[in-house]
Design goal:
Largest sheet of chain B: 5 strands, antiparallel
Order of helices and strands of chain A: EEEHEHHEHEHEHEHH
Structural class of chain B: alpha+beta
Number of strands of chain A: 8
CATH superfamily of the largest domain in chain B: Sulfite Reductase Hemoprotein, domain 1
Number of strands of chain B: 20
CATH topology of the largest domain in chain B: Sulfite Reductase Hemoprotein, domain 1
Largest interface: A-B, 49 and 46 residues
CATH class of the largest domain in chain B: Alpha Beta
Strand content of chain A: 15-25%
Number of domains of chain B: 4
Strand order of the largest sheet of chain A: 2-1-8-7-6-5-4-3
CATH architecture of the largest domain in chain B: 2-Layer Sandwich
Number of domains of chain A: 1
Helix content of chain B: 25-40%
Strand order of the largest sheet of chain B: 1-2-5-4-13
Distance between the termini of chain A: 51 Å
Radius of gyration of chain B: 23 Å
Oligomer: heterodimer
Distance between the termini of chain B: 61 Å
Strand content of chain B: 15-25%
Structural class of chain A: alpha/beta
Number of helices of chain B: 18
Shape of chain B: globular
Radius of gyration of chain A: 18 Å
Helix content of chain A: 25-40%
Chain lengths: 206, 555
């Protein structure tokens, strides 16, 4: 039974998952504070990806695969034909910066799917990443939330531009469907509905 | 005040249904403790030492009589018939049952109230000056903007799970009473040189374990852009604030790490994309919301009232209360009244069901049916005629609401502390009570004059100890409770963070320590000096010397 919810227009349904997620092999590098040059203050203690990990990542030879951003960037040449065949998607970790994706793949819409992996429910960076991909970078294809995805994030994920949600394996996607409709008329403009409520309705005091 | 339309009502009703289902799933074991935590926190529900605590939102401190009456009813039905007003102008219930919370929320929704985002890592209740709309020194009434920001921040999808809590305060006076400089975002509304409403924006202020005053990120922002500019700030924070260490996760740490110039550069770069986006506020929306805050139907009254003057002249107890409890009003013949929730010998900020009902009645009878909660944890009737003040005082006094100590030493700001809060290192209420008892002499209190004493039971600083003229912080040393004392903190335009005077004290020592600080002040003060002025002039040294002198003599 699939645990993938997909939004088609306003209709959400459970569909088969065609995409296989490719993971990096376990790293040897110790976890260290990253003070990278791109974001000089990024002291969030995320694991840094090593060249060995990237080289050792096993990408299945056929089928639709979601590869890690670091692998996509480093090994783009070998993936070229499969990208053209719409067999390659990219997944991003919440601490990664979108600019590195854009630099290497200026035409985001050549990708049939982008996924953001949220390691912990409480990591709300995923919402800003979705918003930026949609609003800033004009990404139009499938945007998927994977990882620690539970029903109580769904309303926010939908509003932040995500169109599919891989519910954590131990939870029911069927039950999660209801949470997409937690609120009927949200106040603020966001990705799914750009206008704030005061521009959608005449709220004049009656 | 703001009245819900069907859209506002639908949102709180849907929230009740959502939380009812989340609670059901938790109680049925479908959600683990860890999974339920962020959900319940975003609804103000803590699991505490004794029982859960539920924090109910009082947006920018405004309440109606009907709402306060309902709060009193809820406290009686679901709790121990009292509630605690907090420094974020909210109301906390200390003894509700988890399974009752959905029903409590449903009852709140019937009076246009909720507990949305009163805790958790999200944008919290927006606070402001308790004299908003009536203060003579007010330049812009910021309540309409506060309401617009409340709606914008409610379930904002992008900012639903921030690195840490996020607090915004707004003010519209030059004499800041909303402590905007110790908030994640502080906004001062003012009229610019073209007489248009503009905003001065501070960012990265905060108390907690790293107390710091905010930095100005923008001197001038047109009001229309308040939401998109905040979005730019919160987005930079959401993406780059630390998430690996909750003690370093507030925006102030990011601002400090980057420096305000670099932080501002990133915010402005972000805002370049967001400026004029659909969330830009329209004239029509500001006008719509402002209508809810139109001036009350005031009577035209003389500036003086003979019956009031006579009562002041003939009744010293009334005069003493009036001296401390009244605040000037922009309309002649009216005063704002602060009802003290700090009677000597009980927990600061607590109000019983009966008191809530009495205050609701007073507001209805004498103050257009509205009242406010101050961050000093008192309740305010904002619009009382001079001629009604004596009657208000009599009724308030009969219910323990007229202790004439507003702004005095016993008007203590105090968090619930270790008696209730699972975060606390130490109890705070018993310290407040012991100090109130030590200084239970009103003439002496009046002689000491204006002073702010703030107590927090841990470095999360809910009791704002850093900005107390005297600040007391509960600390844990090898499993026992100790208290660190600082002096020289201050809120307002000249906000400052207090300096710790030295090693901490046991609970029993605290009343005597405060007494010694006061003794130094009384001995050294010039006629016009308040406690804070003397501290600023002399520094910590003479106070420290006197407080710690006894130990040396004993040794």
């Amino acid at each position: 039974m699939s645990n993938l919810i997909k939004l088609n227009g306003d209709v959400a349904s459970i569909v088969e998952n065609e995409w296989t997620i490719v993971n990096l092999p376990a790293g040897q590098a110790e976890e260290r504070k990253q003070a990278g040059k791109v974001v000089l203050f990024k002291l969030t203690g995320e694991k840094t990806v090593t060249d060995e990990q990237i080289a050792d990542t096993v990408i299945p030879a056929s089928g639709k695969v979601l590869v890690p951003l670091s692998v996509f960037i480093a090994r783009k040449a070998e993936l070229q034909t499969r990208i053209a065949a719409s067999e390659i998607g990219v997944w991003i970790a919440t601490h990664e910066v979108l600019e590195s994706l854009i630099e290497n793949q200026p035409d985001l819409n050549a990708l049939p799917i982008i996924a953001v992996n949220v390691e912990r429910f409480a990591d709300g960076r995923i919402f800003s990443l979705g918003t930026l991909l949609r609003k800033r970078y004009g990404y139009k294809n499938e945007l998927r939330a994977v990882g620690d995805v539970l029903r109580d994030q769904l309303f926010f994920l939908k509003r932040s531009g995500f169109t599919s949600y891989l519910i954590r394996a131990d939870r029911s996607a069927e039950e999660a469907l209801a949470s997409l409709k937690d609120f009927t008329t949200p106040y603020q403009g966001a990705v799914d509905e750009a206008l704030p409520v005061f521009k959608r309705y005449n709220r004049a005091v009656k | 005040m703001y009245k819900y339309d069907e859209i506002d009502q639908q949102i709180v009703d849907e929230r009740v249904a959502q939380f009812r289902d989340q609670t059901r799933r938790y109680l049925a074991g479908e959600l683990t403790e860890d999974e339920f935590r962020p959900l319940r926190l975003q609804n103000g529900l803590y699991i505490q030492r004794q029982a859960p605590m539920l924090r109910i939102a009082v947006p920018y401190g405004m309440l109606s009589s009907r709402q306060l009456r309902k709060l009193g009813d809820i406290a009686k039905k679901y709790d121990k018939a009292y509630g605690h007003f907090s420094t974020r102008q909210n109301l906390q219930l200390n003894w509700p049952k988890v399974e009752d919370v959905p029903d409590i929320l449903a009852e709140l929704a019937t009076v246009e109230m909720h507990a949305i985002q009163t805790s958790g890592n999200c944008i919290r209740n927006i606070t402001t000056d308790q004299f908003v709309g009536i203060a003579p020194d007010e330049v812009v009434d910021p309540r309409a903007m506060a309401e617009i920001m409340r709606q914008w921040s409610t379930f904002h999808p992008e900012f639903a799970l921030l690195p840490r809590k996020f607090k915004i305060a707004v003010s519209g006076t030059q004499d800041d009473r909303a402590v905007v400089q110790v908030h994640d975002i502080g906004m001062e509304f003012y009229l610019d040189s073209n007489k248009k409403i503009a905003v001065k924006v501070w960012v990265g202020g905060g108390l907690g374990r790293t107390p710091i005053l905010g930095s100005v990120i923008r001197e001038h922002l047109e009001w229309q852009h308040a939401l998109t500019y905040c979005e730019a700030i919160v987005r930079v924070y959401n993406l780059h604030g630390r998430r690996d260490n909750m003690f370093k996760a507030r925006i102030k740490i990011l601002v400090k790490a980057l420096g305000i110039d670099e932080f501002k550069r990133q915010v402005e770069a972000e805002w370049a994309h967001l400026k004029d986006a659909p969330n830009t506020i329209t004239e029509a929306e500001l006008a719509r919301v402002s209508k809810h805050f139109d001036a009350m139907p005031y009577e035209t009254l003389p500036a003086h009232d003979a019956s009031f003057d006579a009562a002041i002249a003939s009744n010293p107890a009334f005069a003493a209360w009036a001296k401390r409890s009244l605040h000037v009003h922009k309309i002649p013949g009216y005063r704002a009244v602060t009802l003290s929730l700090k009677p000597h010998g009980s927990a600061p900020g607590d109000a019983s069901t009966e008191q809530m009902h009495v205050i609701a009645d007073l507001a209805e009878q004498y103050s257009f049916g509205e009242l406010r909660v101050s961050h000093e944890q008192n309740l305010i009737l904002a619009d009382v005629k001079l001629g009604d003040l004596f009657a208000v005082w009599q009724k308030a006094r009969a219910h323990g609401l007229a202790t004439p100590n507003i702004g005095l030493l016993t008007d203590i700001i105090c968090c619930p502390g270790g008696d209730f809060c699972s975060l606390a290192n130490a109890k705070s209420i018993p310290i407040a009570v012991a100090i109130q008892q030590q200084f239970d002499n009103l003439d002496y209190l009046h002689d000491i004059g204006d002073i702010e004493l703030n107590i927090s039971g841990c470095m999360n600083a809910c009791g704002h100890h850093h900005v107390g003229h005297i600040g007391i912080l509960g600390v844990d040393k090898d499993g026992s409770e100790w208290y660190q004392v600082s002096i020289g903190g201050s809120q307002g335009n000249n906000a400052s963070i207090g300096s710790v005077i030295g090693p901490s004290f046991s609970a029993e020592e605290m009343p005597a320590v405060v007494q010694k600080l006061i003794d130094v002040y009384l001995k050294e003060r010039t006629p016009e000096e308040q406690f804070i002025d003397t501290v600023r002039r002399l520094g910590v040294v003479p106070f420290k010397a006197h407080v710690y002198a006894k130990d040396e003599v004993a040794a």
